[in-house]
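Agenda item 2: pyridoxal-5'-phosphate complex prediction
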Amino acid sequence: MTAPAALDACVDLAAIAHNVGVVGRRSGAPVLAVVKADGYGHGAVPVARAALDAGAVALGVATVAEALAVRSGGVRAPLIAWLHTPSTDFAPALAADVEIVVSSGQQLDAVLAAAQTTGTPARAGVKIDTGLGRNGVGPHDWPDVRDALVRAVADGTIVLGTAMCHLAHGDIPDHPLNDEQAARLDACVAELTALGAPPDVVHISNSAAALARPDLSRDMVRAGIAIYGFSPLEREHGDLGLVPAMTLSAEVSAVKRVSAGQGVSYGHTWVAPRDTTLGLLPAGYADGVPRLLSNRLRVAVGGRIVPGVGRVCMDQTVVDLGPSTDVRPGDRAVLFGDGAEGGPTATEWADTIGTIDYEIVSGVRGRAVRRYVDSRDEVGT
Ligand SMILES: *Cc1c(COP(=O)(O)O)cnc(C)c1O
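Presented output:
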């Protein structure tokens, strides 16, 4: 096992595998693991491999560039990409056996043009805007796009792979729009089928719906945040048994005694109320520790939870280790992890500053160095 860097983003691939199992069991459907945004900050290729080993049947990313990066990592599994711009070049994606899911007639035309140059039918899909109001083919454009898809299937330019939509209120499982969106997608699939172009794979559910609305699972569920160990559902849905895969920890770079009255960090927003000991951590907002967490952090170090004090800086964070401490430079402090034994979590960071854990984990960057472990390797050894 490699040694952790000064700022270590350690990903437990056993947690990824476990979470894929949870999503599969709760949704009752095969799992497409979403590894966009470099695997929500966890590393797309290692996460993809771990998810596939754990039974995921397919992968999804936003962009062609992300899809090509997954292929460059040697991952051959079915892979879809669903977010494109007018300048996107689809030819390398088709050559790499990436299924392009289009959101407009213009994107479909570009895929058909690229497919015609390759000589073999391209696998393409369609994303339908059934109510999210974001990307996807909207109701006004649907008849034209539908007919173009049917023609392209009939003339052998494409094989129709995916038909999908994305929910606006997936995290509110009983919201009526979820059922309306599903009904609209089902209607579009029925039209394609009646016109002789049935899609191969239909899906609706993100993590939230996969976990709470198994009736919305069609052929597959597209799970992102849940496979990284976070639930997008409110706590009243109970403990789903997901395990956060990433632990962000920092080496304590310095420990120093200060006297009562010493202000700490820019603006002296915290002043030591008593003689105490400060610990310095090499993690700041440039690494993904939000500055809004200034004076609101909890850090696990030396078997205790200690408060972050003063402003989070670009490169550093300060913690109050208390008047007497055994913590020494070189010890490790956990900024967030799986929350076992009451330790801090990315969800707690998000709740504290009014965002979502998606933004916290996908925002780990800067000097943080990713490392992979598999806690299954430690069992019984
Ligand atoms: C990101 C994304 C997902 C995954 O959503 P989670 O809430 O992370 O499960 C699924 N589908 C689409 C279209 C997405 O963009």
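Discussion summary: Residues 34, 36, 82, 166, 206-207, 222-226, 232 surround pyridoxal-5'-phosphate (CB under 6 Å).
Owner for follow-up: CH.
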